[in-house]
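Q&A log
Question type: sequence-to-structure
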Amino acid sequence: QGQEKLSCNPKKENGTHVVVCELGNPMKAGAQITVDMELSVSGLEDIGDAITFHLQLRSKNSPSNASVMVTVPVEAEAEMELRGNSLPATTVLPMSWHGVEGSQRLEDHGIKVEHVYELHNKGPGTVSGVTLSLAVPHLLGDHVLLYLLELGTEGGMNCSHHPALNPAQV
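Response status: OK
Response body:
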């Protein structure tokens, strides 16, 4: 007939979170009630792809305690953005330039170009276990196109280095 707000109390029972809502006492025989519930659950980053609620109707006057399991899919939402820059933005090598074999001087291996990539999470959710694979062409046939000197990271990231990183140890 009318709409009422329920009084619900969260508590823990046997290691699980329980929310108990009082629907009415006493209830008339044959009464039918429709309940709409909105639950807010946090900390679902590592829960998997679904969360299951066990809903149970208990009555002191009835031996039957009807229950139902409701499974709700969990989808994480986060928008990732990759930004990149090269410093300097443009590099032109002269046609007559040749590297010096066996040299330990950086300038004998070419002009320094630094590539910086930033991976940003624009939210709303948090992310973990992100893998960024970056392929850099370092050979053109049998000739060195880019001499890969070093790879650095910031912000607690782990990197695996390519075997062609600084092969001449300059």
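Response note: The chain has two domains: 7-73, 76-169.
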